[in-house]
Design goal:
The chain is mainly alpha-helical and 302 residues long. It contains 12 helices and no strands. The protein folds into 2 domains: 33 residues; 224 residues, MetI-like fold, CATH 1.10.3720.
């Protein structure tokens, strides 16, 4: 048997030439330039913030600081002077009362509201959710002026309950926004099993849901705490002479009539910054979104 050999004419076929895409040098250099610009702007911003904080901190402990790189002496007397002049003891007490009241009330009201939105389907649910989130989407000053007008008519402006209610308005939707995903991740069969064994709604909520929601409640509490300490607009519009929080008292110390030493004002600003920074660090230590979600998911498996 003869083997037939097939020959192909070079005219029939043409060699295949693989074309590789040309390197996108322009895109590469543009990306590097953009990254460098972003890093440069962030570095410039952080340096400016650091220098401003260093200037305030240095002036708060300086005896005299005019026309030199460093003060001529150091002292902590401005902190005691600010404590007495601005009545920081009373201001901090009011701040603690307002913050703790807002945190407790927002958790007590916000967690059941978030549970209802996460577990129930009813007509107008989307509209109600939008109304809850409305204070978070618009500037506080937008609804703060009508709110202050209403509180003056109800004789709540200038009182401690009025300041608490004003700060509760943006805090409550924030708790609902944080807690709803935590509740949605809990298996509803756990609640059904508890009801099968005779647990009422309150008992099931306290013994089944609250332990599972503890990470979310901690996260919401710390975030509301930091937010309330820094809330200026609503507190400024509704607070009186005896119900000012620390941030409002700091504003009045800067812009009120009279001559005040800049060192004492900077000392007060450092007190406010330290208090806020401490709670912010605590919140960042305990509130990690990925860690909290993983902890919620682990509970039903255990």
């Amino acid at each position: 048997m003869t083997q037939a050999t097939t020959t192909t004419s070079p005219m029939m076929t043409s060699p295949t030439i693989s074309r590789q895409p040309a390197p996108k040098r322009r895109t590469h250099w543009a990306s590097r330039a953009w990254s460098g610009l972003v890093v440069g702007l962030m570095t410039f911003f952080l340096i400016n913030v650091g220098l401003m904080i260093a200037s305030v901190a240095t002036n708060s402990v300086a005896k005299r600081w005019l026309g030199t790189w460093l003060p001529s002496g150091w002292t902590l007397e401005w902190y005691s002077a600010a404590w007495q002049e601005f009545q920081l003891g009373d201001v901090l007490l009011v701040t603690v009362q307002v913050v703790l009241s807002v945190v407790v009330l927002s958790i007590l009201i916000g967690v059941p509201a978030a549970y209802t939105l996460a577990r129930r389907n009813f007509r107008g649910k989307k509209l109600l959710t939008g109304l809850f989130l409305l204070p978070l989407m618009i500037p506080p000053i937008t609804y703060g002026i009508p709110l202050a007008t209403l509180m003056y008519e109800l004789h709540l402006a200038g009182t401690l309950p009025g300041v608490i209610i004003a700060n509760l308005l943006p805090a409550l939707p924030f708790v609902i926004l944080v807690m709803t995903p935590f509740i949605e991740q809990i298996d509803p069969n756990l609640e059904s099993a508890a009801r099968v064994f005779g647990a009422r709604t309150f008992t099931m909520f306290r013994h089944v849901l609250v332990p599972l929601l503890a990470p979310g409640i901690l996260a919401a509490s710390l975030l509301v705490l930091v937010r309330t300490i820094a809330m200026f607009e609503l507190t400024f519009l509704t607070a009186g002479a005896d119900t000012q929080t620390l941030v409002v008292a700091l504003y009045y110390s800067v812009f009120a009539a009279g001559v005040r030493a800049s060192q004492s004002i900077d000392a007060m600003a450092m007190v406010y910054m330290i208090v806020t920074l401490i709670w912010l660090l605590i919140a960042m230590r305990f509130v990690s979104p990925t860690q909290l979600v993983s902890r919620v998911k682990e509970h039903p498996q255990n």
